[in-house]
C-alpha cells in the first residue's frame, strides 16, 4: 500500500482495539463495525440506555467571515441567515442538476462562525466545494486533530450531566460549549439514532480521556457502525449513498421538510443555490419518484438494491436501505419508488433471490423518534 | 458417530452409512453474528458439493450455506424458519440445518476431522 491510500484511524482507535471491536474499512478509515456485545444488543442498548459512538471519521469544518451565512446559502437550499446563535440545522449541498452532493449539520457558533459536520466519504469533496466561498471573503477550515463522539439513547443526558451538568439545559438541535473534565467541547443535542442524545466535538488528544469517562458509566456501551446503521434505518433517517445521491433532488428523496420556506418560491430569498431551478420545479410540480418506508411481509430481510415490482411485474423502484429491525423484530426497508404506484395503492413486491416478497408502503419512521424538545 | 468439517465451516455428522446431518460450526455462527432468517432447501432437492443450498441472514448480511457433500436432501430443520436463534444457541444440536442421503460416500474423506478443523480456524 502506498502512503497515499494508507488507511486512516481516529484518535480512539486504540480504545476500540482494547474493547475487542471488529474493525472494518469505512470511508478510508479503520472503524469499529461492532463490539463483543454484537449489533443487535448494541442497538437495543442504545434504544433503552445509552450508546457511545466514535464518529470522528466525519468531517468537521469551520466556516468564518462576516458573510459566512449568506455565502453558505449559495450552496444549500436552507435558511442559514436566520439560524439563531447556538442552533443547529440540517442541510444538503446540491449540485447543478439539483442532485444531492452530501447532507450536513450546520451550527451557528457565533462570532461570524458556522460549524459544519459532513459525511466522512464526502468530506474532501465538500471541503473543495466550500473553498469556492473563499472569494466571498470566507475562511474555510477542515478541522484536523479533532474527535467527534456521539452519546445516544434515553439515558444520554443523565450520563453526560454527571460530567457537564449544564447539558440538561439544552434542547434538540441546540449547541453549547461544555466543559467535560476540564476540556472545552462543543456539544449539540442531536445525533442520528432517532433517540435523544449528544454529539460532542473535542480536541483529538483529549478524546480518549473523555471517552473513558463516558464509557465507565454503567448505562453506557460502545456501539459500532453496524448498529448505527440499523438505528438510523428504524428512525427513517436518510443516509448519503443510499437515500441521497447526486442523481436525485432533495424532493425526490423526500427531504422536502428540510427545504426552508424562505428559500422557496415566494420566500424572502428564493433559489440562489446550485440546481435551484430544478429543485423548485420539483417542489411546485411534484416528482415521479420519492422515498418511502416499506414493511416486508414475513421474516426475510429485504436489503439495499432489491428491486420493487408492482403486481403486473413492472419495475417501479428499488430498495435504498434495508435490513432487520432489532426493535420491531421484523425486517424493514426504505425504497425509492414511483409516486403513481403509491397513489393507486398497487400491490408491491420486493425481489429477493428471485422470490417475490410482498411489501406495503408505511409511514417513516419505523420506530418513534425520541428527541428532547424541552 | 463421527463428525467432519468443511472449509466453509459446516459440520457433517455421519448418522448412518450414507446419511449425514449438516449444520454450521460455532465458529461460523459467531462470525455471522445475530441470525435473523434462514432459508432452507426443499426436501427432495438434489445438491452437488459446492452448490449454494441455503441462505443464512444475519443482522449484517446474507451468506450462503455451501453443500459440503453431494446427495438428496431428505429432511430439513423446519424450526429454523421461526427460530433462527437456535443456530446461535446450539449450533451442533438443535440448530442443525439439513439431512442428506449421500450419493458419493467417498466425499466424506475430503472433509477435515476435529483436530484438522481446529488448526484450520486458528490459522
Overview features:
heterodimer; A: 374 residues; alpha+beta; Gyrase A, domain 2; Alpha-Beta Plaits; Elongation Factor Tu (Ef-tu), domain 3; 3 domains; six-stranded mixed beta sheet; six-stranded antiparallel barrel; 9 helices; 19 strands; 33% strand; globular; B: 123 residues; OB fold (Dihydrolipoamide Acetyltransferase, E2P); six-stranded antiparallel beta sheet; three-stranded antiparallel beta sheet; 3 helices; 17% helix
Topology:
The complex is a heterodimer of chains A (374) and B (123).
Chain A (H helix, E strand, L loop, with lengths): L12 H6 L3 E5 L2 E6 L4 H10 L1 E5 L4 E6 L3 H6 L14 E7 L5 E11 L2 E6 L4 H8 L8 E4 L3 E7 L3 H8 L11 E6 L2 E6 L8 E7 L3 H9 L4 E3 L2 H10 L41 H10 L3 E8 L10 E4 L4 E11 L4 E9 H5 L4 E5 L2 E8 L12
Chain B lengths: L2 E3 L4 E7 L2 E6 L1 H7 L2 E5 L6 E2 L4 E7 L3 E5 L4 E6 L8 H5 L8 E5 L11 H9 L1
Antiparallel strand pairs in B: 1-2, 2-3, 3-9, 4-6, 5-8, 6-7, 8-9
